[in-house]
Design brief:
This protein is mainly α. Helix content is about 55%, strand content about 5%. It has a three-stranded antiparallel β-sheet, covered by helices on one side. Helix 5 packs antiparallel against helix 6 and helix 20 runs antiparallel to helix 22. The protein starts with 11 loop residues before the first helix and ends with a helix.
Length: about 700
């Protein structure tokens, strides 16, 4: 749990941070090209005429191939459900969408059904044609991989453009560790290596090398393999850790714990490297690539649960079972068998067992849609509690994509044993749609499934008929503010790679961001026209990629009051941020005295520049917001109902007990959240001291504004 040491007068800023937390967070490819040239590059399609112990393509499988259409049929049902639920443009330019789209392309190959290719093509066309995308992290390079696949299929140069841009990012823009490792999350993460970057970079870079006929991407990726292996691979455990910080030298998890999906990403990435790196480049690696793959598989097999799935921390059976790790292994081993590298086809039994484990997590919901359950949402590095706190969900895009990839690859190499139909017995949960799906409850369902577009449409319909419906107003406003905060991260990404300028950011803040906060603030104010309390099963953020989920919680007038008040504060800041009367380089006031001096200086300058009215308006809006924060704190403190599922429970503002946001913030002592020692907490009378401090700030601002 982080510790923040701030003076009481600035603790109100933490209220904003709670909502910013919602957006942060917090956390595949297919075959290679035909190899008709005379170089020494391995090809996924080469015949296997050597004397190694891998499958020989000329002889065919060592087992009797049967017909078993069930997994591909289920893959089609899953893909059709996704296509019916999300328009192509609703899929973000991000790694999670890219995994799904490569799965769609592989499914199209084995079924011959063009609609899956077309869905991927429509997605790429949306992002490419008006250059809506940006590449500023390892995660945003991944869409270049399905784009290259479409370039190979169509010859259309526009699909090569993102790959060229991704290569420019890797070579000329990306931050690197001291030994050349590529930073994972750009400005968000610091100089860090995350194990999943091996996959986010690998299939794209290896395919790009073939596309442009250059060994440079191969050499670059080989270097990344060496660096990542050196910092993250435990040679005794034969598994990868999650994160390495080049700044501190810290490796997470600090304990001997190994994230399942992270090792799955690394496994698949290394299979690609084994098949696609030129032999000389592969031989020049600092470690035995194929031997490492064998060691990883030998280590993971005994960790498999009897259900055919793996625990989210694979060596800890006290963590929950999860679906995507087994699918990654099934896909990776299937690729190796298909391409004639690393593994013999005797591992078909493992593939089918892992595929069965995932198939048993397929259900049909109340609306008749096919769902794959049990995939954990975006996962960051941490301790056991951090991994266990990550929520699982249904039809998580990359989990669904991995099922498509694993099923399609098994079909390509040839089934051996029949996969049984889903058993219908699962401990996993999912959010069912109301039937019929209409009104506020339908909108909340779409929020839980991450479709903000359809959710907002439902809330808008309710408000047309009932303009004062508090639930519809609140959740519609919640979508507005979440979109603004998430899009702010998106805009900063673009700034860091030079796609936009600081002037563009300022214009965006004054237009889009201010408009979003204004809509939200008005809706929250209207929502408080009546008492309400509404439970939301899940808030799923996927519009900008990444799949961050906030667990079930009750929202009521307290949250509405607080969000509306924060909106007023932010809008007041927007009102004055462009004024020449404001010194942008001035240090942040850290006491009421410093605040008064700062405002007096701004007042004197405003009188000279003729901006008194604008400054007064902004200060009044900030004071109004601070008064609203006080009202919200007093409302929440007075609540006496069961607070166990409240998003902002009263105990948070009384420094009592624990607090956490399921799926985002691990539960811990409230005093730790605010960076207080037990002695400091005992000396404070919360929430009264906090309210008193906010009132003092508001009073000072009102006094200064009244001078105009």
């Amino acid at each position: 749990m982080p510790r923040w040491n701030l003076p009481p007068t600035l603790l109100v800023a933490l209220l904003v941070a709670l909502f910013v937390t919602l957006s942060v967070a917090p956390l595949v490819g297919c075959g290679g090209d035909d190899d008709d040239d005379d170089d020494d590059t391995a090809s996924a399609d080469d015949d296997d005429d050597d004397d190694d112990d891998t499958a020989d393509d000329d002889d065919g499988p060592s087992y009797t191939v049967i017909e078993d259409p069930l997994p591909v049929d289920l893959a089609k049902d899953l893909a059709d459900t996704w296509i019916g639920f999300f328009e192509p443009w609703q899929n973000a330019w991000s790694w999670d969408s890219a995994v799904l789209m490569v799965g769609m392309l592989d499914l199209a190959e084995v079924t011959g059904e063009e609609k899956y290719t077309q869905y991927c093509r429509d997605w790429l066309d949306y992002w490419i044609e008006d250059h809506r995308y940006h590449i500023a992290t390892s995660d945003t390079t991944v869409p270049s991989f399905p784009a290259l696949r479409l370039y190979e299929l169509t010859g259309d140069e526009k699909y090569k453009e993102p790959a060229d841009e991704a290569w420019n990012y890797i070579r000329n823009i990306a931050v690197r560790t001291s030994d050349g490792g590529l930073n994972h999350l750009g400005w968000l993460s610091g100089v860090e290596l995350w194990v999943d970057s091996l996959f986010m970079l690998g299939p794209y870079m290896l395919t790009y090398a073939d596309t442009i006929g250059s060994g440079l991407p191969d050499a670059e990726y080989a270097h990344q393999l060496d660096v990542f292996h050196d910092h993250l691979f435990n040679t005794q455990a034969h598994l990868f850790k999650h994160k390495y910080s080049d700044t501190t030298g810290e490796v997470l998890p600090a304990q001997p714990n190994y994230w399942g999906r992270g090792n799955g990403w690394a496994f698949v990435a290394q299979v690609y490297a084994s098949a696609m790196l030129p032999e000389a480049t592969k031989a020049g690696l600092s470690y035995d690539l194929d031997g490492t793959l064998h060691d990883m598989l030998d280590t993971l097999l005994p960790m498999e649960d009897e259900s055919g799935r793996f625990h989210t921390i694979v060596n800890r059976d006290d963590t929950y079972l999860e679906t995507s790790t087994g699918l990654l292994l099934a896909y990776g081993v299937g690729l190796a068998i298909d391409w004639g590298v690393v593994f013999e086809d005797t591992h078909i039994d493992d593939i089918e067992r892992w595929l069965q484990g995932a198939t048993d997590q397929i259900v049909v919901d109340a609306a008749g849609d096919t769902l794959l359950l049990g995939t954990s949402y975006g996962t960051g590095p941490g301790d056991v509690a951090a991994y266990q706190n990550v929520l699982k969900g249904e039809n998580v895009s990359y989990g669904l994509g991995l099922y498509l990839l694993a099923a399609a690859r098994r079909e390509t190499i040839g089934p051996k044993s029949a996969i049984s139909a889903p058993s219908g017995e699962t401990d996993e949960t999912w959010v069912d749609p109301p039937v019929p799906c209409e009104g506020v409850e339908c909108g909340k369902f779409y929020v839980a499934r991450g479709n903000f577009y359809k959710a907002q449409s439902e809330f808008d319909d309710v408000l047309v008929a009932s303009p004062n419906d508090s639930e519809a107003l609140f959740f519609s406003g919640l979508i507005d503010v979440v979109r603004v905060v998430v899009n702010l991260v998106f805009e900063i990404d673009k700034l860091t790679v030079g796609d936009i300028t600081m002037d563009d950011i300022v214009a965006w803040l004054g237009d889009d961001a201010a408009g979003g906060f204004e809509k939200m603030t008005q809706k929250m104010s209207a929502a408080n026209g009546a008492e309400f309390a509404s439970y939301l099963d899940r808030l799923l953020l996927i519009e900008s990629g990444g799949h961050t989920a906030v667990g079930g919680a009750e929202f009521d007038n307290g949250e509405a009051l607080l969000l509306g008040a924060v909106g007023d504060v932010v809008l007041g800041v927007f009102d004055i941020v462009d004024l020449t009367a404001v010194d942008a380089d001035a240090p942040l006031p850290r006491s009421t005295g410093e605040l008064k001096a700062t405002l007096d200086a701004a007042l004197e300058k405003a009188e000279v520049t003729g901006e008194e009215k604008a400054l007064k308006s902004g200060l009044q809006r900030i004071a109004q917001g601070l008064d609203g924060v006080v009202a919200a704190l007093e409302y929440i403190d007075a609540e006496t109902d069961d607070q166990s599922d409240d998003f902002l429970p009263a105990n948070l503002f009384r420094l009592e007990g624990t607090f956490g946001i399921p799926g985002v913030l691990v539960e811990g002592p409230v005093i730790d959240l605010f960076g207080l020692t037990e002695e400091e907490a005992a000396a404070m009378n919360w929430p009264d001291d906090l309210i008193k401090s906010i009132k003092q700030i508001s009073t000072i601002i009102k006094v200064v504004a009244a001078i105009f």
